[in-house]
Structure formats: structure tokens, C-alpha cells
Design brief:
Length: 436
């Protein structure tokens, strides 16, 4: 934790130092500001320009499009061309753009400043745009739900619980592809997924002393005892969680009058798939007495969303942003349960495949904080922190049902689908944007 704080303090201090040097450079005198072929001192007609055309009187020192203040050099055309003023994007304007953040041939800090400074062509007024964006996402997962005990020994000591299945951070992918539909507007297709969380809880006993939740942790001498799940030498619980997200949005961009603020609003359709699986394996005598429980919970959330983003230009090429998207969705949820086992040479099912479907209203919301650093005209580094929240989900913990009808003493099983779960993903992202 201390190393992380030192690293972030160093980065922030460097950014403030760069900003301070740029501000100091912007306040320099005209003669010291733009090295080049023009002299800052007074010039007499005919001294430097053929035809005796003198430079125009410089402006008031207000910032121009490049984000630099001062007095950009401008010269009149030669006689016979109408005396028109050369545009700021002519030769002199290009000189200004290349030296806007300090000369790379300088010594000491000016050279370091040039190396650290982002590519700032166009200044803060440069429109925000990319054709393709890709980044890795490092996501934590919180699924909540009840605390369950799956396995105990004969002393009632828990052997496998839901705490053994707590998910670890996983790496996935987020990518966007933009297609411009008009000035300041575009269609964006976004995918986020390949997030696959898997955990295993395992318990063993050399004396076949494991009892299960299916018999309420009793042995075979109890009426509730199950040969396939109790007095076992191995209990194993496997849990798996997968996320895949698809979006198609229309985005309309805007820019503030001072160019320090950029933003956009968006609307579109989104589908978020959340799937979980929970499997309980019990082995009393390998290949002779075994029991299996398999639960699958699936969620397909589809709906309309609204959102937008807001960006602050810290300096040309370096921006901080915040984006949010949310919508009310329809969740097509399903839970499927199978329970089977073997006893000697007999394979049998404790119940037919159980399947329950339900469609309910759900909520999907996302918030992201981002920073972009422009490296060159075509490539920008980007990173940030993301939160994705889903509510009204059918999850494995909520739908785990240990009631098993016994072959010799059938009992009614409470068939249900619980879609009251919620899921929270959060973590850092890092990647890049390409423009061609």
C-alpha cells in the first residue's frame, strides 16, 4: 500500500510540475517565446522581407487554437497577392505547434518536459475521437448471497463453506468500435467479457467421515442419511461465474466554449449475460458409491440505456473523464438442477431434470473514471477504474436447494427460482485508443 501511494504521489507531482512549466512558458515575453527566424526586436521596412513588407503588429497575447498564449508570428503575403494574412495553420503555425511544449534539443528540464509531455497538436480544442479502443479489465466480483455450509465432519466442524468459494480478481477484455455518422456523432459497438471466475472447495477423510447438507449433516443411521452423499471420503464443490456484455450506442459529442470541457450523451441497447454453475461431488467408494448435484443459473438482461461522459482537459493531450450508463432491463432468468448418483452397478436419478424460467425487470448501471494520454496523432493511452452493478439476478447461492427426494421415502421438493441476487464488478482498466 505504501509503494502505491508513493507511486501515485510521484505521478501527480510530475503532472503539476509539467503544468506549472507550461503556465510559466505561456507568461514569457514575446521575444523569448517563439524561437525561429523572426527577431523579437523592431524591424525596419525591407530588413528581412523582400519587397519591403514589414511584419504585422502582433496580437493581444490571447490563447489561440493550439492552446498556447503569446504572439504567434504572422507575415503578410508578398505584394501582388493582395496583402492577405497567412493563416495560423500555415508555416508559422506549424512552428508554433512543434515548439508548444518546449524544445526537445534543450538541456536540463526543458528536454525532460518534452519527453514527458503528451502530444498536444490541436490543443484542448482537439475533438475527442477514436476508431478502435481496447483495454484489459482487472475485475473483482461480489455476488453476495447467503452463507452456506456444504460439508461437515462427524464432529460438526465445517469442511466446505461459501467462504471457500470467494472469487479472486480476474482479467477480461473491453473493446469499442466507432463509426462516424455525422459531425460530432457516431455509432459505437462495445464488448466487455471473457471474465471467468472459478473456485473449488475440497474436503477429504481417510475414515469416510464426511456428511453433507443434503442429509442435514446426519450419518446413514438417520432416516435422512444418503449413501451417495454421506460417510464420504471426498466432498468437492465447484463454482463458476461468467460475464459477457454487448452494447450498441448512438453517441453525440459536444464541446464547451473554452474547450476545457468536452462531453457527450448516448442512448442505445445493451445485453448483459451472467451465468453461474454450482456442482457438488461426493465419493464414498470410487466407482461404486458416488453422488452428484449440478445447478445452472442463467441471466440474459436486454434493454435500453441512457448515459454520457464528461472530460476535463488538464493540458493538451492529457484529459480526465467520467462516464455513466444505466437502464431498466428485462431479465430472462433460468435455473436448472440435476441430482444423480451411482450405487454399485446402478445409475439412477434422484429426480427428473428440474427447470424453472422467469422473466423479470432488472437494473444495470455502470460508472467509469478514466484518464487519457495522447502519445502521437494515432495512438492514445487510456486507463481508469470501473464499477458495474446488476440487480435482480438469479445466482447459484440463492438457488441452491438441498432437498432430495429419497427413492424409498419420496418427499415433496420445493421447486423455485430466486432472482433476488445482485452482482458488483469493480476494478482497474488499462489499454489504448487508435485513430486512423
Amino acid at each position: 500500500m505504501t509503494d502505491q501511494r508513493v507511486r501515485w504521489i510521484t505521478i501527480v507531482a510530475t503532472l503539476f510540475l509539467i503544468a506549472g512549466q507550461i503556465e510559466a512558458r505561456a507568461q514569457m515575453t514575446p521575444g523569448a517565446m517563439h524561437p525561429g527566424p523572426m527577431s523579437a526586436g523592431p524591424m525596419v521596412p525591407g530588413q528581412a522581407y523582400p519587397g519591403g513588407v514589414a511584419p504585422v503588429v502582433y496580437g493581444s497575447g490571447m490563447p489561440d487554437e493550439t492552446g498556447m498564449s503569446g504572439y504567434p508570428p504572422m507575415v503578410y503575403e508578398q505584394p501582388g497577392h493582395g496583402g492577405r494574412l497567412s493563416g495560423r495553420h500555415g508555416h508559422s503555425g506549424r512552428l508554433l505547434g512543434h515548439q508548444g511544449l518546449g524544445s526537445g534539443t534543450g538541456q536540463g528540464f526543458p528536454g525532460l518536459r518534452t519527453i514527458l509531455a503528451p502530444y498536444g497538436e490541436g490543443g484542448c480544442c482537439a475533438p475527442r475521437w477514436f476508431d478502435v479502443h481496447m483495454e484489459a479489465v482487472f475485475m473483482n466480483l461480489d455476488v453476495g448471497g447467503p452463507s452456506l455450509v456444504f460439508s461437515q465432519d462427524l464432529t460438526n466442524a465445517p469442511q466446505i463453506t461459501t467462504s471457500d468459494l470467494d472469487p479472486s480478481n480476474q482479467t477480461g477484455l473491453r473493446a469499442s468500435f466507432a463509426y462516424q455518422t455525422g459531425p460530432g456523432s457516431n455509432l459505437e459497438f462495445t464488448f466487455m467479457g471473457l471474465l471467468d471466475y472459478s473456485e473449488v472447495g475440497r474436503a477429504t477423510s481417510d475414515t469416510n467421515g464426511l456428511v453433507s447438507v443434503f442429509s442435514e449433516f446426519t450419518d446413514l443411521n438417520s432416516p435422512e442419511g444418503l449413501e451417495q452423499f454421506d460417510l464420504a471420503r471426498l466432498h468437492e464443490v465447484r463454482w463458476n461465474h461468467q460475464l459477457n456484455n454487448f452494447e450498441l450506442n448512438y453517441r453525440r459529442r459536444w464541446r464547451g466554449p473554452t474547450c476545457n470541457l468536452h462531453g457527450s450523451w448516448l442512448m442505445g441497447v445493451r445485453q448483459v449475460q451472467v451465468n453461474e454453475a454450482l456442482r457438488f461431488d461426493s465419493v464414498s467408494d470410487p466407482g461404486v458409491v458416488e453422488g452428484y448435484y449440478q445447478l445452472d443459473a442463467r441471466n440474459s438482461n436486454t434493454g435500453f440505456q441512457l448515459g454520457g461522459d464528461l472530460w476535463v482537459c488538464l493540458l493538451p493531450g492529457l484529459n480526465l473523464g467520467l462516464e455513466s450508463k444505466a437502464g431498466i432491463f428485462g431479465n430472462a432468468a433460468r435455473q436448472t438442477t440435476n441430482i444423480w448418483g451411482i450405487d454399485g452397478n446402478i445409475d439412477y436419478r434422484f429426480l427428473p431434470e428440474e427447470r424453472v424460467d422467469r422473466s423479470r425487470v432488472s437494473f444495470v448501471g455502470e460508472v467509469s473514471a478514466m484518464a487519457t494520454y495522447r502519445v502521437n496523432p494515432n495512438f492514445t493511452i487510456r486507463g481508469g477504474y470501473q464499477l458495474l452493478f446488476l440487480d435482480r439476478m438469479a445466482l447459484a447461492r440463492q438457488n441452491f436447494n438441498p432437498e432430495i427426494p429419497q427413492l424409498l421415502d419420496p418427499q415433496e421438493r420445493n421447486v423455485r427460482l430466486n432472482d433476488s441476487g445482485s452482482v458488483l464488478y469493480d476494478g482497474f482498466t488499462v489499454g489504448g485508443e487508435w485513430m486512423w
